[in-house]
Amino acid sequence: MTNISIIFHSRSGNIYQLVEKAAQTARAAGAEVRVRKVAELPDPMILDKQAYQDLATATADIPEAGLDDLVWADAIMIGTPVHYGLPAPQILNFFDHTGPVAIPGKLMNKAVSAFASGSMPHAGQQATILALHNAFCHWGSVIVSNGSAAAVLHQPGNGAPYGTGTISRHEANSVTDDNLGAIEYQTLRTLQVAGALKRGLEPEPGITLVSEERLRKFGLDI
Question: How far apart, in whole angstroms, are the C-alpha atoms of residue 49 and residue 207?
């Protein structure tokens, strides 16, 4: 069985719609699924306060993401709204705190994939996903992109090879059927790559990781 953590921040429900579809798809494929929201910040930027409150109510029972959710997973999917062409500050804050598991190599060889939602067709969805790819490289993870070959990616509402991106036009919960098809494909592809990595790395190759002395210099509790 493949373990997958789907970690997200959503502002008006569009990312959460994709998260729900990804989780449904993964469970149907036989995966063990954790859905986790990242912690809120003290003073978040909110445009649609009603949608934000409705979403907070809808996701109240979802646990906050922790480092254990990353270590546990074979596959990781990250969903974020676009914020000036970057991931949401809440997502970046979560990434900033992954050093204790990233530096010792505990995120190496995990299959990771990202998806985003922006207000307009060119609002920065692809730039946001690529920004997350930078962090995945530091983790030593294996980036799973959508590519361009799947038929669903050629539907009118899709098209990005980097990962699924939606166009909200500042409307809450406005994900289209095209987008849901794209995230379904992205989830299955991520699980496929994660399964192949898991099987192919048994037994694991002999890799010398960073020394305990070096870890102590980072102030990490090992």
Answer: 49
The tally of domains found in the chain comes to: 1
Can you state the angle between helices 14-28 and 177-200, rounded to 10 degrees? 50
- CA dist 171 and 193 (Å) reads 33
What domain range includes position 41? 3-217
Whether the CA torsion 141, 99, 138, 203 is positive or negative: it is negative
Residue 69 covered by a domain:
yes
Record the pTM.
0.92
The CATH number assigned to the domain holding 19 equals: 3.40.50.360
Task: Quick: pLDDT tens for 20-67.
Answer: 999 999 999 999 999 999 999 988 777 777 878 888 898 889 999 999
In angstroms, rounded to a whole number, what is the distance separating the alpha carbons of residues 26 and 36?
Answer: 14
- CA 82, 57, 117 angle in degrees (round to 5)? 15
- C-alpha 46/C-alpha 117 separation (Å) is 15
- Reference 81, options 9, 145, 132; nearest CA is 9
